[in-house]
Design goal:
Helices cover about 80% and strands about 0% of the residues. It is mainly alpha-helical and about 140 residues long. α1 runs antiparallel to α2, α1 packs antiparallel against α4 and α1 packs antiparallel against α5.
């Protein structure tokens, strides 16, 4: 989810704002993502056995599903109507690249913009991937 949202901020929302003049839709989606990222960051810090975890997970799921539905109803139709097929393919390639190099964890205070993600994202991604690798090594050695 963290990589997906970062890729949207880098690729999709700038297109909505600059090419399609739909800054309001992009800003609404960014606000939803900010809320979801904060919830995800909180979930990552709560132990699954902690009594708050189940309720926090349900709240996160509801928020995430509402955001996905909003994108399907508002964002996808705008992109389909406003951008030709070749450009959408280019955006899809850019999206996949951005997701592959984005941070792997939610950072509740990370920037919510293409510029912020372009500047801070690579640093956070490097830190996240190093932590993920260390965690994977610890998990493998304890098995």
């Amino acid at each position: 989810l963290a990589t997906h949202e970062a890729a949207e901020e880098l690729v999709v929302y700038p297109v909505l704002k600059a090419e399609l003049q739909e800054g309001g839709v992009a800003d609404d989606c960014l606000a939803e993502e900010h809320e979801a990222k904060g919830m995800l960051a909180k979930l990552e810090k709560i132990a699954p056995a902690f009594f708050e975890f189940p309720a926090a997970l349900v709240e996160f799921e509801q928020t995430l599903l509402a955001h996905a539905e909003h994108e399907e109803r508002a964002v996808f139709p705008l992109l389909e109507r406003g951008i030709d097929e070749e450009h959408r393919r280019e955006l899809a390639d850019a999206f996949r690249h951005a997701a592959a190099t984005a941070p792997t964890h939610a950072h509740g205070h990370s920037p919510e913009s293409a510029m912020g993600n372009a500047v801070v994202g690579p640093v956070l991604a490097t830190i996240d991937r190093a932590k993920d690798a260390a965690h994977d090594r610890r998990s493998a050695s304890s098995s």
